[in-house]
Amino acid sequence: MATKEPSFEEQLAQLQQIVNQLEQGNTPLEEALEQFQTGIKLAKSLQNKLTSAEKTLGHLIDDAGNERVYENNTDDPSNNGGGNRGFGSGDSVKG
Question: Disulfide-capable partner of 42 in 15, 30, 48, 81 (CB 3.0 to 4.6 Å)?
Fold first, then answer.
């Protein structure tokens, strides 16, 4: 029987535990390196899950069953996929 992949929350808790242990600074070097590598793998897995969830939430299904894009998607992580909102959106302030 195949093993079930840990949930997002379980992986996040494991990553936090690793970070806490490494921050204490009393872990032997070899073990710290193993934990660091495990932490990197967990962080990549968590990022992939977040990216997938973001893509899913960026689409809506209308009453006719057609998929609609909810927000303008962008590869710019600084605006969280929100398109041109806020400062620098091209709106000028007149005083």
Answer: 15
pTM for the whole structure: 0.61
CB 45 within 8 A of CB 11: yes
Terminal Cα-to-Cα distance of the chain (whole angstroms): 68
Count CA atoms within 13 Å of residue 48 on its CB side: 8
Distance CA 39, CA 21 (A): 11
- DSSP-derived letter for residue 69 is E
82 Cα distance to chain centroid: 16
Nearest in space to 71 (alpha carbons), one of 55, 58, 56: 58
Kindly report, residue by residue over 53-69, the tens digit of the pLDDT: 888 877 776 667 777 76
Report phi then psi at 57, rounded to 5. Answer: -70, -15
